[in-house]
Amino acid sequence: MAAKLSNNDLRSLRHRYSEWFSENCQNHLSILVTGKTGVGKSRLVNALVGRQVAKEGRLRTACTDTVTAHRAVIDGIEVVVWDSPGLQDGSCNERLYLADMKQKLDRGFDVMIYCLSMTETRFQGADKNAIRTMTEYFGKDLWKKAVVALNFANRISDPDEEDELAYFMNEKYSWDKAIDEFLDDLGIDCKVREDLAVVPTGTYKKLRLPTCENWLSKLWMSCYIVMSVSSGLTLYRINKDRLKFPGSSTAPAAPGAPAAAVACSSCEDDNQLLIPECDTTQGPDDPEEIPREIPLNEEQEERFWKRIWSAFVNGCRKIKLMVSNLSHTVLRSINRGEN
Fold first, then answer.
1. Alpha helices, H only, the chain
2. Please, which residues have CB within 8 angstroms of residue 333's CB and are 6 or more apart in sequence?
3. Which CATH class is domain 27-109+111-226?
4. 81 has which bridge partners?
5. Is the pLDDT confidence value at 277 over 60?
């Protein structure tokens, strides 16, 4: 149950939260997506950010030892998607390719999404070589902010048509085991391997998979969790109009620059934690086929707010604000209209 707060307390907390959010939210987001050509990398990232940043289905020429950057501005935030299939495709001079990657990713990246095709019968040697090379180049900490996407998961079906769920789970287990064993061989720490999310992903029209109701929600949360706090807040901001929480028809507006305070649609009382609104302008060129919503279930919502609240409280402690007696459920009340 959320703590009972006076209106003055709420106004003060809202002000502190707005300041904290503005100070910690980045003005850029960098996503490294890698995997062989044709495994659906562009479509996956476009679904994640809600905009056609990377071109889908375009003709590709042989790699010329360069990493391709796709850029877009979403809600004032520069989003850069780095597409690097060269190491997997084996069409590049590895030394030149890595040098180009180092130069272009001089500021690092916020999350890496490594794409594999779940329809492959085994963990391919090209991917193993690429993973080994990238681990040696970026260091083992690379996997602390990585997510593995098993694309084309909607194509997995039991050839005997007996138990689709059991068959799918067995395929997923085989991939989990193969990836974990290979990373273990590379000396990746056990805790890092345990925390590494391996997420089956499908198509826009088939968001439900045998093991989850919405693969995009699971992918989004997996990326959000492994990102730094500032990166996660930025991912949240560019998706603020797409996130849907249980019991709420709309997502809360994310704080931006100081502006008028607004309440969520379920808020009818001043005794709520309100957050400032920011620009919600959408680009006119957004393709309709990209999912317009990312519905979080109750467990995902809990993780989402708990992480934001924990980061906020830690930030407040640094400036000696006495808010440690408040629960992260105060933030959740934005959507539920609780007192």
1. 7-24, 41-49, 86-89, 94-104, 125-138, 164-185, 190-195, 215-226, 229-238, 298-318, 329-336
2. 2, 272, 273, 339
3. alpha beta
4. 31, 70
5. no
How far apart, in Å, do the first and last CA atoms of the chain sit? 9
Q: Measuring CA to CA, which residue among 106, 116, 105 is closest to residue 81?
A: 105
Query: Can you tell me the mean pLDDT for 285-306?
Result: 83
Q: What angle do CA 115, 116, 119 make, to 5 degrees?
A: 145
Residue 49 has pLDDT above 70, yes or no: yes
- Give the Cα separation of 192 and 184 in Å (integer): 10
- Enter the pTM of the model: 0.80
Strand order through the sheet with 197-200? 68-74, 77-83, 28-34, 111-117, 146-151, 197-200
Q: Which residue has the higher pLDDT, 179 or 11?
A: 179
Residue ranges per domain, the chain? 7-23+243-336, 27-109+111-226
Number of H helices, E strands in the chain: 11, 10
